[in-house]
Design a protein that fits this description.
Helix content is 48%, strand content 13%. Residues 121-128, 437-445 and 565-592 have low confidence and may be disordered. The chain has 30 helices and 20 strands. The radius of gyration is 31 Å and the shape is globular. Helix 21 (515-530) links the parallel strand 13 (508-512) and strand 14 (546-548). The strands form 6 sheets. Strands 1-2-3-4-5-8-11 form a 7-stranded mixed beta sheet.
Length: 833
């Protein structure tokens, strides 16, 4: 059978004879199935009939069970992986000897799922004994049938069938996700992304960079072309996002119908094939789709371009499809195009892969491109990340860190409320909830959990979590999944989509220096909402939840910006009077008074901006609300600068008055002794030098203020923690700070290091690493009793520059757990341990 023929075979609807035919092809022989299948369960929840239909002895002597499971209509084969996983856990796992191939299908659904479950015993050479793998079995699945491309499945199964002998390892490799991810990423980056941004740099330079000349030096050209690469990443991100969305059947829905169903599962490919002007696919088709359709609330939801029959496309909101701007803040022209074959080859490339809209968990993989992989791809494309020491964190590590953080947080609060005597039992119960909660079934509802469920739900609802180096969003998305699983375990009646929306709105916060990383993280949150929606809903605006900025600086060029939300005059008593927050003599006429009314206005605006439905009810555009927020931000940034300017002007005035007094004294005493006169003249010179120094400071502050206003708002070299997250700091800080902060020697970034040195970090060392500052900042951001969970280089344990960090842990924190992965390579591309 050729690959094309196998692909055609896999795309046919499921039939009773299909498992036998596929097994015969894979094993190149007639596979004997049971004459009388063994019934495992009949007419249970979500199951019509589950039966073992055969056993195959593999080349390594291990047994492979063959199972056929018919599920009810409540389980959507292509989407509801959790429902199928629970079936496998409850009715199949206990009958598996070493592994299983399971055919999941439903009487009225054309698509089916082929799942491989690996569970086997291993021979321990040290003990000379057979040791069973007691960990949860891993599940890998292909979704097959008429609505799937089946290209990857056909290719993988062809390779398997071509082997002379099939063992458990060969089966595992055929279903493995990692090789697929590497293959996809290599082609995506080295072929399509590179080809697109290089063409744009050669043919559309002026559109992005205006009159900026193209440098003669290739390296300088490459550096200057970053806005072009950013545009290419964002355009590709949008196209990939729509591949996930078309999997839901929401794109290209018939105009004559109202439900969001029966859309074109290959909408993007159809759009390109039918558009009348393929050479202008971006400028005349994608811009219409992105900016005028997906980003525009329309009553009829109709999308129409020349050559394609009108269809329905939903309004998404959220910001992913906002119009693009140039580095100077002006709108980017739509008149940008690529050669026809660029889009043709790109869309053909995407069509080879299964875009699975749900995030894979460490034990449950659908063989395809999931949102987590999308985050990995685009994070790897951020060229600044490697220079700044940023690395993608393995999924298993993310899950462990998220679960541990929640266990510690919940246990800490419940023990404080219920008493130390319950600590062992509570820890066990909470661990069961969080580690088992990912399955969301009744077996994880421990008695103590049931007894205190309302309080646990309250603690989960009140949580404030931040990743100060969010990258592609691995940790916040991981926390979303774990909190969501726990909530659904505690109350099975909750609406899944609404629970996720509330967690994102009330619990999750994140910051990153790189705007592209912020875009990716937001995109993953939107996908996490889409997966649980039955119909498309306007996505929340995450501009003030996942934000761009330097997490380590709440100042700009030495001007502190961290006390904006104080309601009292910010002054400090010293021996010779008062000094303000900048270390200058306080002016009693100036106070840092941010009124409660203004405070509440900002809080209301931020909450309103998040919710597109609330904006709609009040007849407001999000752009108008954003302008109001920006006005408040700019007013108080200016006010901070005014404080410094007024302080310096006052000092200059005082010095001028003192000089005038000395000069008057000289004039009034013409017969004064020569030595005394010289002393007074020297005083005048010193004060004049002081005036000049302060005038230089004042000029520098005014230049800094001008630079601040001229900054591209998408690349702020600071972050206003206390302004943008007021609800958090009114509660004294975050409950959990979790991250994989960057690893970067401060000596490699001298300009930034100088600013960090002025910020007052106890852990700052010129020879140190930036992750040490992230530890200290994380501790600063926590409320009393909060939990910090990081994975970092382990060099701080023994180095001289790590001494202040070790002292920080001893003096300011209560360490709970330290896992040192010495000599263990968790990160393929990182050279640190």
């Amino acid at each position: 059978m050729t690959e094309s023929a196998l692909k055609t075979f896999l795309r046919q609807p499921f039939s009773a004879s299909l498992p036998q035919q596929l097994l015969n092809y894979l094993f190149a022989a007639d596979v004997p199935l049971f004459e009388r299948p063994k019934t495992l369960v009949e007419a249970a929840d979500n199951v019509v009939l589950a039966q073992q239909v055969g056993t195959v002895t593999l080349a390594d002597g291990r047994n492979l069970g063959i199972f056929d499971v018919a599920v009810t209509e409540a389980v959507q084969i292509a989407r509801n992986r959790k429902g199928l996983r629970d079936v496998a856990v409850n009715y199949i796992d206990q009958n598996i000897i070493h592994g299983a191939l399971v055919f999941f299908h439903s009487p009225n659904q054309a698509d089916y799922r082929l799942t491989f479950i690996a569970r086997y015993s291993a021979f321990d050479l040290d003990s000379m004994e057979l040791v069973k793998n007691e960990t949860a079995p891993k599940r890998f699945a292909f979704v097959l049938g008429p609505n799937e491309a089946c290209t990857t499945a056909a290719r993988r199964l062809m390779e398997l069938a071509g082997k002379q002998a099939i063992d458990l390892k060969a089966l595992t490799n055929a279903f493995a996700v990692e090789p697929l991810n590497k293959e996809f990423f290599k082609q995506f980056k080295d072929i399509h992304f590179k080809k697109i941004w290089t063409y744009l740099a050669e043919h559309h330079w002026a559109d992005f960079l205006g009159d900026e000349p193209v440098p003669a030096d290739a390296k300088a050209t490459d550096k200057l072309a970053k806005p072009i690469r950013d545009f290419a990443k964002k355009m590709l991100g949008r196209i990939v996002f729509l591949h996930f969305l078309q999997k839901k059947g929401w794109l290209g829905c018939p105009v004559a119908t109202s439900p969001w169903a029966n859309g074109d599962k290959r909408f993007m490919q159809t759009l390109f094939e039918q558009f009348a002007h393929p050479g202008q696919f971006y400028s005349r088709c994608l811009t219409e789709l992105f900016f005028n359709t997906l980003n525009n609330a329309r009553t009829d939801s109709v999308f129409a371009v020349e050559g394609m029959a009108p269809c329905r496309v939903p309004y998404l909101n959220g910001g992913l499809f906002d119009r693009d701007t140039r580095p100077n803040g002006q709108w980017l022209t739509d008149a940008i195009d690529l050669p026809t074959d660029y889009f043709q080859s790109l869309l053909q490339f995407f069509e080879q892969y299964n875009f699975t809209i749900d995030e894979n968990s460490p034990g449950d993989y659908e063989v395809g491109i999931d949102p987590e992989m999308l985050g990995h791809i685009f994070e790897s494309l951020l060229e600044e990340n490697r220079e700044k020491g940023a690395f993608y964190t393995p999924k298993e590590i993310v899950q462990y860190m998220c679960q541990e953080s929640l266990i510690q947080h919940l246990t800490y609060h419940l023990i404080n409320e219920l008493g130390e005597s319950l600590q062992p039992a509570l820890l066990e119960a909470i661990t069961t909830l969080i580690r088992g909660g990912s399955r969301g079934d009744e077996r994880n509802r421990h008695n103590l959990i049931l007894l205190h469920a309302p309080r646990i739900e309250e603690l989960l609802d009140d949580l404030k979590i931040c990743d100060p180096a969010i990258g592609s969003g691995a940790f916040p998305v991981g926390m979303l999944q774990e909190i969501f699983a726990a909530k659904m375990t505690l109350d099975l009646t909750l609406n899944r989509a609404e629970v996720k929306k509330r967690i994102i709105q009330e619990t999750i916060y994140g910051v990153d220096m790189e705007p592209g990383a912020v875009d990716i993280a937001r995109l993953r949150f939107w996908l996490s909402l889409v997966v649980d929606e039955d119909e498309p809903q306007p996505l929340p605006n995450l501009d003030y939840k996942i934000m761009q900025g330097d997490s380590l600086l709440e100042s700009f060029e030495g001007i502190k910006l961290d006390k904006i939300l104080q309601t009292q005059q910010v002054t400090y008593l010293v021996e010779n009077g008062q000094i303000d927050i900048f270390g200058q003599i306080a002016d009693p006429q100036i106070t840092m008074n941010f009124s409660e009314e203004k405070k509440q206005q900002l809080r209301d605006l931020l909450r309103l901006y998040y919710d597109p439905e609330a904006l709609k009810r009040q007849g407001l555009k999000k752009e108008a609300v954003k302008r109001q927020v920006d006005t408040i931000v700019h007013d108080h940034l200016d006010y901070n600068f005014e404080l410094v300017e007024r302080s310096l002007e006052r000092q200059i005035g005082d010095l001028e008055d003192e000089i005038m007094d000395i000069e008057t004294s000289i004039q009034n005493n013409p017969g004064e002794a020569k030595a005394r006169r010289k002393q007074k003249e020297d005083q005048i010179v010193r004060k004049q030098k002081s005036i000049a120094a302060r005038q230089t400071q004042l000029d520098a502050v005014r230049v800094s203020q001008q630079r601040l206003h001229a900054l591209n708002t998408a690349n702020k070299p600071y972050f206003l923690w206390h302004l943008f997250f007021p609800d958090v700091f009114e509660q004294q800080g975050f409950d959990i700070v979790i991250a994989n902060p960057p690893y970067l020697q401060l000596a490699r970034i001298p300009a930034e290091a100088a600013q960090y040195g002025r910020e007052g970090y106890d852990t700052f060392e010129k020879t140190g690493d930036i992750y040490g500052l992230f530890y200290e900042q994380g501790v600063r951001l926590l409320r009393p009793g909060g939990v910090l969970t990081y994975i970092t280089s382990n060099s701080w344990l023994q180095t001289q520059y790590g001494k202040p960090l070790r002292q920080l842990f001893v003096q300011q924190t209560d360490p709970l757990t330290l896992l040192n992965f010495a000599d263990t390579r968790l990160f393929e591309t990182a050279v640190v341990e």
